[in-house]
Amino acid sequence: MSPWLVVGLGNPGPQYAGNRHNVGQMVLDVLARRMNGSFTTHKARAQVLDGRLGILAGGVPGPRVILAKPSTYMNVSGGPVATLAQFYGVDPAQMLVVHDELDLTPDTLRLKLGGGEGGHNGLRSISNFLGTKDYLRLRVGIGRPPGRMDAADYVLRDFSTAERTELGVTLEEAADAVEEVLMLGLEKAQMRLHTSA
């Protein structure tokens, strides 16, 4: 059984770490903490953590998962993701990409399989390199920019003070959703996530 590849999208470097665009990588940091592991540098131009996620019935360790944070900029994430998928023998059906979503209100989470990229350059790059859009996505809502602010400027700004008060809860819930997909399957995870609001 091939492992799961869970990708958190974002931009590299400390100047971007708190940006709304990096919320996917923030979710992976929560997952890494739950796995009691730390990321190491992979030759595929990514930070990776290879381990087991969650506990199944009877105390059995959960599925093997590769957490991956591409070390490239968001709009060229596809190269590292495709290289990691090949390296670990992961089919797109075993891949989950965690990313920010302008079309969802803050603190809203949605799971989906395939579909369009909605103007998200990170997803577009991954789809191009994989040659398919049929991979799982966990969309983490960040809302639309206020007033006339450009969307590109908005996603590259840090979460506001008010947003940060709820962000920790959202990140934990997103990590829960990732675990549920891997251990229960997409449909059950969607049912729990999408009907809990």
Automatic annotation (TrEMBL):
<feature type="site" description="Stabilizes the basic form of H active site to accept a proton">
    <location>
        <position position="100"/>
    </location>
</feature>
<dbReference type="GO" id="GO:0004045">
    <property type="term" value="F:peptidyl-tRNA hydrolase activity"/>
</dbReference>
<keyword id="KW-0820">tRNA-binding</keyword>
<keyword id="KW-0694">RNA-binding</keyword>
<feature type="binding site">
    <location>
        <position position="73"/>
    </location>
    <ligand>
        <name>tRNA</name>
    </ligand>
</feature>
<keyword id="KW-0963">Cytoplasm</keyword>
<comment type="similarity">
    <text>Belongs to the PTH family.</text>
</comment>
<dbReference type="InterPro" id="IPR036416">
    <property type="entry name" value="Pept_tRNA_hydro_sf"/>
</dbReference>
<keyword id="KW-0378">Hydrolase</keyword>
<dbReference type="GO" id="GO:0000049">
    <property type="term" value="F:tRNA binding"/>
</dbReference>
<feature type="binding site">
    <location>
        <position position="16"/>
    </location>
    <ligand>
        <name>tRNA</name>
    </ligand>
</feature>
<comment type="subunit">
    <text>Monomer.</text>
</comment>
<dbReference type="InterPro" id="IPR018171">
    <property type="entry name" value="Pept_tRNA_hydro_CS"/>
</dbReference>
<dbReference type="GO" id="GO:0006515">
    <property type="term" value="P:protein quality control for misfolded or incompletely synthesized proteins"/>
</dbReference>
<comment type="function">
    <text>Hydrolyzes ribosome-free peptidyl-tRNAs (with 1 or more amino acids incorporated), which drop off the ribosome during protein synthesis, or as a result of ribosome stalling.</text>
</comment>
<comment type="function">
    <text>Catalyzes the release of premature peptidyl moieties from peptidyl-tRNA molecules trapped in stalled 50S ribosomal subunits, and thus maintains levels of free tRNAs and 50S ribosomes.</text>
</comment>
<dbReference type="Pfam" id="PF01195">
    <property type="entry name" value="Pept_tRNA_hydro"/>
</dbReference>
<feature type="site" description="Discriminates between blocked and unblocked aminoacyl-tRNA">
    <location>
        <position position="11"/>
    </location>
</feature>
<dbReference type="InterPro" id="IPR001328">
    <property type="entry name" value="Pept_tRNA_hydro"/>
</dbReference>
<feature type="active site" description="Proton acceptor">
    <location>
        <position position="21"/>
    </location>
</feature>
<dbReference type="GO" id="GO:0005737">
    <property type="term" value="C:cytoplasm"/>
</dbReference>
<feature type="binding site">
    <location>
        <position position="121"/>
    </location>
    <ligand>
        <name>tRNA</name>
    </ligand>
</feature>
<protein>
    <recommendedName>
        <fullName>Peptidyl-tRNA hydrolase</fullName>
        <ecNumber>3.1.1.29</ecNumber>
    </recommendedName>
</protein>
<feature type="binding site">
    <location>
        <position position="75"/>
    </location>
    <ligand>
        <name>tRNA</name>
    </ligand>
</feature>
<dbReference type="GO" id="GO:0072344">
    <property type="term" value="P:rescue of stalled ribosome"/>
</dbReference>
